[in-house]
Amino acid sequence: MKNIIKVPTQLAKNTTSPNSLSLDGYSVIEQCFHHAEEKGTLFLEEHVLFLILEGSLTLTYGTESFALTKHEMILLKKATVAQFEIKGNPDKSHIYDSLVFGITNEMLKAFLVSVEMEIPRRTKDVIKIEVCPMPECLITFAQSVKHYFSGIYTVHQGQLRLKIMEMLYNLAVDSHNMFMCMLEFQEPIPTDIRHIMEEHYTSPASLNELAYLSGRSLSSFKRDVQEIYNTTPAKWIREKRLNKAKELLETTQLSVSDICFSLGFENISHFSRVFKVFHGKPPSSYRYH
């Protein structure tokens, strides 16, 4: 099993044809290559907007799956893990072409402060994440951004910032639901702690990111976890992972490395060491019982 690819910091290093721009906290990644199929796992460090220009992309997290084709887009919130499957267009030499934008809360705040337009008020209703068609203005915008990856031009910090602001403006005007989704991501609605812990204990999310997902401050998140589980979040996650690892070693044929990475551990030596300390035996000893 491959390790998790962190987006945006690691995505450019893990694609067949990496191309990325990152200036002053603004990041854009171009994925353009000829490849029949590619699969893996992503961890979103920021809110991420995927624009598909050719080929197809399937994203799965939890029980939800989203299939995107040419000139479709989707926005996913930060601190989530998603399985991905990329397929190139077989009618065009298996080409896959997309733009991936990292969107931070600071970026959204800067846009809301500077824009001269009426921003709709948020409601208490949860806005559903969905695949949306790219409006014509965003298709044109995507093509203009592609020129930045040609290597012909020097891209300056102010240029990239203005292009991101242009993209957000296009979304606010022509993709109302997606823009409202962004605003909701900026300040999530409080969610049940048990659901967050059970859903995300295998992900590489930090405590700050888990607190964000729960719609709480870090201190409130720690307090609520302590009240429910009578332990700290870090200890609960570690013990949950190690108990699940023991279960998988005893009941499946998965390799130690597959179990290690699937449960959120970042290297096998660390996993083996903490497993032995917790269970009194190394992982390999459970494989043959």
Describe the structure.
This protein has 2 domains: 5-186, Jelly Rolls, CATH 2.60.120.10; 193-287, Orthogonal Bundle (Arc Repressor Mutant, subunit A). It is globular and about 60 Å long. The model has no long low-confidence stretch (mean pLDDT 87). Strand 6 and strand 7 (64-68) form a beta hairpin. It contains 11 helices and 11 strands. The chain is of the alpha+beta class. Helix content is 42%, strand content 24%. It has helices spanning 105-114, 136-146, 157-174, 176-186, 193-200, 207-214, 218-229, 233-251, 256-262, 268-279, 284-287; strands at 5-7, 18-23, 26-34, 37-44, 47-54, 56-61, 64-68, 72-76, 81-87, 95-103, 132-133. Strands 2-3-10-5-8-11 form a 6-stranded antiparallel beta sheet. The chain has a 5-stranded mixed beta sheet with strand order 1-4-9-6-7, with no helix packed on it.
Features:
single chain; alpha+beta; Jelly Rolls; Arc Repressor Mutant, subunit A; five-stranded mixed β-sheet; 11 helices; 11 strands; 42% helix
